[in-house]
Structure formats: structure tokens, C-alpha cells
Design a protein that fits this description.
Shape: elongated
Order of helices and strands: HHHHHH
Strand content: under 5%
Radius of gyration: 20 Å
Low-confidence stretches: 6-36, 164-191
Helix content: 55-70%
Mean pLDDT: 73
Length: 191
């Protein structure tokens, strides 16, 4: 039962994150191509709308010497990551509880729609707070960087990117457009 609930939480979180990225990164519609007979490359996933503006904390830490981070900057970033990680864990527990309650509500033969939707709101609220937590940390960390440090990080990011969208720093890669991870691991607060 716990494995099923864990799987459900994971699938729900992954689908939520995917939908947030897809909705927020919608591109103008492309004109229709030559039709299904065309054997061109598969369509590229949408770009992360915040990927070029935010910096993953692990990237900053890995290049702290090159960026010439001050001791105050390092201390601030460690503190922010620690606070965010603690809160993230609390929110993960809340999310799991909310998903379990939603599961219990909807597994009945006859589902009370009002109760199920109220429980769904609790799940969505927890997910929204997780997203807000990550973006808030990213903003606070970015605000501690000088303009020169941000420029260096941008050039490092561009030199790290591979040729396609799955390379480091591209959608699907370990950088800004990549998968969601806890704030103490490789992550982008925009994820």
C-alpha cells in the first residue's frame, strides 16, 4: 500500500511539474508542417521560461572559486539551502498526506465530488508552496550575486550546454530545464 501511495505521489508530482513547465512555457503555435509522412527530427520540448534567469545552487557552489564568492555569500547560500531543505521536507510530508487522503476519497464506488475537489485543493496548495519555495530561494540567492558573477554563470551555462535540448542546462538535462530535485541536491529553483 505504501509503495502504491509513494508511486501515486511521485506520478502526481511529476505530472504537476510537467504541466507547470508546459503551461508557463507555451510557445506560439508553429505552422503545420508537411504532414505525417515527413521523417524530420522529433519536436523539441518547450524551453524553461526561467532557465536563463535563474542559477542552480549546485552550479554556483561548484564554481564558487571561479566566481570569487565571498565568505558572506557562501554562508548566506548555505543557510538558504538549509532552510529551504527543511521546509521542503515538511511540505513533502504534507503533500503525501494530502495525496493519500485524496486517494481514499476517490477510491470509493461513489465519490463525493465536493469532498474530492476540496482534497485536491489541498494537494495543489502543497505543490504550489513547494514551487514557490524553490523560486523564492533562487531569487534570494541570485540577489546575493554581483552582476559580474551572474555574467560569469551565464557564460558557464552556455559553454556547458550540449548541442540538443537534453544537454546540461537544457530541458531534460541536469541544469535549469531538468528534472525537479530536492533543494540540497542539483536543482534549479525554477523547477
Amino acid at each position: 500500500m505504501k509503495k502504491r501511495i509513494g508511486l501515486l505521489v511521485g506520478m502526481f508530482a511529476a505530472s504537476f511539474l510537467l504541466s507547470v513547465v508546459l503551461v508557463s512555457a507555451q510557445q506560439p503555435e508553429q505552422p503545420p508542417g508537411p504532414g505525417p509522412q515527413s521523417q524530420g527530427p522529433p519536436p523539441r520540448p518547450p524551453m524553461d521560461p526561467l532557465g536563463d534567469a535563474m542559477f542552480p545552487p549546485d552550479m554556483i557552489m561548484q564554481h564558487s572559486r571561479e566566481l570569487d564568492l565571498t565568505q558572506e555569500q557562501k554562508t548566506f547560500m548555505r543557510s538558504e539551502m538549509q532552510k529551504t531543505t527543511t521546509r521542503f521536507i515538511e511540505l513533502q510530508w504534507q503533500l503525501q498526506d494530502a495525496v493519500e487522503a485524496l486517494h481514499e476519497t476517490v477510491k470509493a464506488n461513489s465519490v463525493n465530488e465536493q469532498q474530492a475537489l476540496a482534497q485536491l485543493d489541498k494537494v495543489l496548495d502543497a505543490e504550489r508552496e513547494i514551487k514557490r519555495l524553490h523560486i523564492g530561494m533562487g531569487i534570494r540567492i541570485k540577489n546575493q550575486l554581483t552582476a559580474e558573477q551572474q555574467t560569469k554563470l551565464q557564460s558557464m551555462r552556455h559553454s556547458m550546454k550540449g548541442p540538443g535540448p537534453g544537454g546540461p542546462g537544457g530541458p531534460g538535462g541536469p541544469g535549469p530545464g531538468g528534472p525537479q530535485r530536492p533543494p540540497d541536491g542539483p536543482s534549479n529553483p525554477a523547477n
